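User: Predict the complex with pyridoxal-5'-phosphate.
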Amino acid sequence: MSFNLENLLRDNIKKLVPYSSARDEFKGEASVLLDANENSFGSPLSHHYNRYPDPLQHQVKSKLSSIKGVPADNIFLGNGSDEAIDILYRAFCKPGVDNVILVPPTYGMYEVSANINDVEIRKVNLSPDYQLNLDGIAAAIDANTKLIFICSPNNPTGNSIRRQDIETVLTNFDGIVVIDEAYINFSKQRSFTQELNEFPNLVILQTLSKAWGLAALRLGMAFASKEIIAVFNKIKPPYNINQATQDLVLEALGNVEQVNTWIKDTVAEREKLVEALATIEQIHHITPSDANFILAKLVEPRELYNFLVNKGIIVRDRSKVELCEGCLRITVGTADENVKLIEAIKQFYI
Ligand SMILES: *Cc1c(COP(=O)(O)O)cnc(C)c1O
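Assistant: Here is the predicted structure with pyridoxal-5'-phosphate placed in the model:
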């Protein structure tokens, strides 16, 4: 096995001269900024947003670096994880030529982004217990396979993928292995962020949209080697993280204790919810979850889904998804919300 970033990159990206913004070309202290055609008078708001934001988000990355234990040069920030997913395709996959491996049932954006970028998808389904089919993955790889996406804990199943299996893929595949850790905060498993030095082909995705409670701000993170992060920075739109998001995220990152409390509460509520649902005989199976949601296999999923909608309770119908037949995906809510949900489900099955 030999990983070689230069060989993996698309030629147009290797040759790309990135846009050089006004704020890239000037660094340092200045009191008169007449370089970027901004409105020098201000913004029609109480807080001013008339200046372009820091293209590389140094303050946010420095704070994230200390929270995550990852150097700032190994961090990319995107407009949601979705931006990092799209950039992975644009950096590594030649439309109409290259392919990627997905392991369904999994997060839908990997497939949508592949289709947008005209990249072939090779699907190797998870096993019935929602683990990797390592032989199937090995058989699907060819010289044009550039990316493998592994989501752990996995959406929509909620379980973690065995660490040993992920390491096997990382060791045996010459392309990029993307581990999506959107739900890692709720998991007993260790993040892969401390293994970046071990695996040059590793890209980890995380997000502030779930445990951090900042879905509306749109901040996704990618952790990878400095070389891969430099490629992402070359491709991204110059000002992809707006100033309001940078300001609010910086403030939120000062509140780790609050987030940790919510994580504990969510996990406790998840266990209570599983216990309560397990007593309902029409609920046949609940996949052990390492996330802030559960996947439940139950009688008449579509009818229950509609019944809940009529009560103003919205869950996710996954009952037609391969390997999730008959399942609803339910996010763990507050104690009150979960009680309402359980009562409504019992009412439906009476
Ligand atoms: C929710 C989710 C994300 C988050 O995406 P953002 O664009 O950062 O909000 C990423 N991956 C998975 C598997 C998710 O479920």
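The radius of gyration is 22 Å.
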